[in-house]
Amino acid sequence: MTVSLHSPRVFQRTISNLALCGSPRWEEMVAMDELCEMDCSVLKRLLKDDSAKCLVLDCRSFLAYSAGHIRSAVNIRCNTIVRRRAKGSVSLDQILSGDEEVRGRLKSGLYSAVILYDERTPDADTIKEDSTITLVLNALYRDAFGTEVYLLKGGFDRFFSQYPDFCLKTKSLPSSTSLSVLDSSCRSTSCGTLQHDQGGPVEILPFLYLGSAYHASKKDMLDGMGISALLNVSSNCPNHFEGMYQYKCIPVEDNHKEDISSWFMEAIEFIDSVKDSNGRVLVHCQAGISRSATICLAYLMMKKRVRLEEAFEFVKQRRSIISPNFSFMGQLLQFESQVLATSCAAEVASPGGTVTTSTTSTSTTMLGPKSSTAPPPSPTFIFSFPVAVAVHGPTSSLSYLQSPITTSPSC
């Protein structure tokens, strides 16, 4: 039968009909307070026939979602930092941060149903009170009026085992890739040293690629991957194809004295501008190991609201040779704290992203964009772990991070 969802009432009747048309194994919905259950076969039918009327929310981690997820599913933002900051209650603005269109449609009642899934929860009776599913349910019941919410029985594990064609899985990534020095034909004379390579740039996101200066010098490679813009994170690697691609340069060296964090927001805005124009951007430095990797990590932390640890693992799975220098890692940790502090302030005050420091009487906009015309400010600190990282610019009241990757502030 053809499934057509034109209203919540028709949607309810459609799912009920599916139960009658199926085999005895179809136990699609079991009422439990306000939460109903949905069998994998029903979701498969909905995805096939009328997916526009249902919203599928993946309640797993960013890494798990990136490894594989149900087609058209949206990954909610509810990592350990958000959970701790929310203190038991999250909003749709938090869990759908960055998905404004989905959030708007949900609040406007344009979805007939929302289907939640995690890794393998079998039924509603086994949902724990402190689980991500519970937090998302509370947010939906509070902010998504009139929309029916369902739990996918068995989660992603069961659905993928039954309907792999309705899932997107990341291609197998090598567990480790040794550094390989290219032969003399792959030397970049402009950069002066041999380049490390993994055969080509790696895809971080559908519009964001990470690679080396060697990759940036190969037009056939760039064209083959659909690259339309290049973000050159170096002071001495040339832009080989001016006029043929969109270029932006971030002139920093790979050393412990550089303040690469002062360029984070400008780089993020450039990447977003390429994304918004349906283009693809290659972020590169000389070897694609430290500077360009740092920019990609900052982008993931800002846009996906993930911790540095999770972003680092995600990128390393794709380009195993990444290794931001010690100072850059410290600046990324400070950036993580600023991203989270800005979110905290927005929850308490307005979404303008401003916070007032405890040591000054002025309001400082955290993570504000740096002027594209003005030169980067002179470095004001050298990161030396485990000494606290100094904030670039006005004094901040943020708690300093003492761990290289695992410590994060909370509100």
What would you say this structure looks like, in words?
There is one protein chain. This protein is of the alpha/beta class and 411 residues long. Among the domains are: 36-169, 3-Layer(aba) Sandwich (Oxidized Rhodanese, domain 1), CATH 3.40.250.10; 202-340, Alpha-Beta Complex (Protein-Tyrosine Phosphatase, Chain A). 34% of the residues lie in helices and 13% in strands. The protein has helices spanning 8-21, 40-49, 62-67, 80-86, 92-95, 100-107, 132-143, 155-162, 213-216, 219-224, 264-276, 291-304, 308-318, 326-348, and strands at residues 36-38, 54-58, 68-70, 74-75, 113-117, 148-152, 167-169, 202-205, 208-211, 229-232, 246-249, 281-284, 354-356, 363-365. The strands form 4 sheets. The chain has a 5-stranded parallel beta sheet with strand order 1-6-5-2-4, with helices on both faces. The protein has a 5-stranded mixed beta sheet with strand order 8-9-12-10-11. Helix 12 (291-304) packs across helix 13 and helix 12 packs parallel to helix 14 (326-348). The longest helix is centred in the last third of the chain and has 23 residues, at 326-348. The radius of gyration is 23 Å and the shape is globular. The termini are far apart. Pfam families: DSPc (PF00782), Rhodanese (PF00581). The active site is at residue 285. Its main location: nucleus. Its EC number is 3.1.3.16, 3.1.3.48. Residues 352-373 are annotated as: Disordered.
